Amino acid sequence: xxxxxxxxxxxxxxxxxxxxxxxxxxxxSGQFRVGTPMPxxxxxxxxxxxxxxxVHMAFEQLILEGLLEGKQGVGTFVAHMPSGIxxxxxxxxxxxxxxxxxxxxxxxxxxxxxxxxxxxIQLPGESRGRxxxxxxxxxxxxxxxxxxxxxxxxxxxxxxxxxxxxxxEPLRExxxxxxxxxxxxxxxxxxxxxxxxxxxxxxxxxxxLLDPDDSVWVEDPGYFGAHTAFxxxxxxxxxVAVDDQGLSVEAGDKLAPQARLVHVTPTHxxxxxxxxPLRRRTDLLAWAQAADAWILEEDYDSEFRYSGAPLAxxxxxxxxxxxxxxxxxxxxxxxxxxxxxxxxxxxxxxxFRAARQIVGGPPPVLEQAVVxxxxxxxxxxxxxxxxxxxxxxxxxxxxxxxxxxLDGLLHVDPDETGMHLVGWLRHGMVAEDxxxxxxxxxxxxxxxxxxxxxxxxxxxxxxxxEVGEPSLLRGVRLLREALV
Length: 484
Fold this sequence. Notes:
Aspartate Aminotransferase, domain 1; 484 residues; 4-stranded antiparallel sheet; 15 helices; Aspartate Aminotransferase, domain 2; Arc Repressor Mutant, subunit A; alpha/beta; 3 domains; 8-stranded mixed sheet
């Protein structure tokens, strides 16, 4: 018989496993029909320049799984498989699935929402480095420092047999101290729950605090990831309008006075950039106390404030401990870190830790240890100071270029915080159409409508953190082509 090409790499693991994989794929794909005789172990070993034992081990596994059958004194043959598994050609028959098979109601809702998750219109090819992309920090992270700390922490944990740990207390202590100093958050290390990204933090809050069909206020426009997490838990999501002072408590109370949870970004509202003033904050806290509701405060980019000190967190002025504070290192350090933290009221900490354990526990202890060193040795604050200077300069240059190149077509206002601006279009222009044309110019833009439940003024999000000033200025010139 003629064997299909079998490539065995002596540097890529056990040869018997590689041979087994190759023969199994050939049988299941129909390259060997039922009843096809296999070569002898001696002949196959000779042709592949391997030992007979290697071939014998592969054959034994295939016989055990029912793909080959041995006949005493005759040889080894491709086995018959049950009807319905194999097609007439000999290949495994795959029936065409019909619809979304047996998904739960929440599964269907999540699938539909994720299909609508805001994504920039892109042409094929690499997206990193395209002007106006959202969310990614500048490629200026002190990687040499990180590498050195990584080696030190590896040595420390292996010496102390600490790699089996999960919850790394020194990091919780460092986060609590950092938040108390820079954000006015009042907490002990026991209240800090380290999680694998902000999205997991939102999902944990939903699982601990919400029952199916509970109502949740979300900002409109607002962060779509929160929307999907709450729908995934079976909650009823209630979009609440955002005005010049952030989420409208009055509007929310009219729409869903018995809401169980509020997701809010008071320091720098996403995506409009509004800051919730003290009076609105106290109104929200008073409403939550009266309604026996919880507040999830997401503080996603407050470290990047360019005028004065960062504003104090809502959690720090909450007298009734109804606010959970959610922060992340992904935007302040690097996106691939996928590490965030929740600060929860003391009486909820054990419930949140239990819920986190169900979904896989905290991030890897090695990464936690490196982040702790990065914080306590002062590298984090030095990195933030540098990035504030870089982002502030990039924002100023972007605004100046828009004023010079796009006057009358697009308007942007400066923002004291954050990594993006909102570009407002002149009357009559449709942001989705502009973003589609901009993609043809190699730009990465998101229409504001992607984050809205209700219609509103036409605008686009212009990220300025990821690429340097030359790329931003070139992007503005290319954007003009999409606007005229």
